[in-house]
Hints:
Oligomer: single chain
Strand content: 5-15%
Bound molecules: glutathione
Number of strands: 4
Amino acid sequence: MKLYYSDTLNPRKVCALARYLQSPVEFIWVELGKGEHRTPQFRAMNPNAKVPVLVDGDLALWESNAIMCHLAEKAGSDLWPQDARRIDVMRWLMWDATEFSPLASVFYFEHIIKPRFGLGEPDAAEIEKATPSFERYAKVLDAHLLGRRYLVGDALSVADFAVAIALPYAGQARLPLDNFPEIRRWHDRLSALPAWRDPFPYTTTGQPATLQAA
Length: 214
Ligand SMILES: N[C@@H](CCC(=O)N[C@@H](CS)C(=O)NCC(=O)O)C(=O)O
């Protein structure tokens, strides 16, 4: 399998999961700054021209959450459960994709992507507009996490990797999380996993890193 990625939000969860599961993937870096995701060859794999993409035989799979489920299923891992928990995991994946992460992404885009790719100053109006909605959903998440170790049941699942995706960037993105201690506690637990803390398969010198056990 080949996993096309960059060191950005959505590929991060897939790289973390691949590392956690020690999936047999070849990691292929896509340089977004050079537009490598907009080439005809890349669009043939993903017409949306976005990373991540997983190529598994004839399958070119895009959408980070679907890729996580595919990798977990291939590994026979309970992170994408076979039993009734699957519906609950699906619920959180949908909630994340439609409610929580689009709002967190506003902060990530304004404070991290714009400076990184020279796209101008953060737009204070965009941040102000996103803040109450972000806090509304953060409150839902915080309340759900009270007394729980993970989102679904008492075990880690792909839902945790999806919903938490903006949290490693919380400081730099200036996510308004001060009033949500349960979210912070939960993310501290995830951060104890080497695969979550350090998901990308290269070192600070730019050399590919050997994947190690999570
Ligand atoms: N819904 C997609 C979103 C993928 C996405 O937005 N990827 C970003 C990087 S985090 C990207 O490739 N952006 C390039 C662009 O929009 O030009 C997923 O979850 O995989």
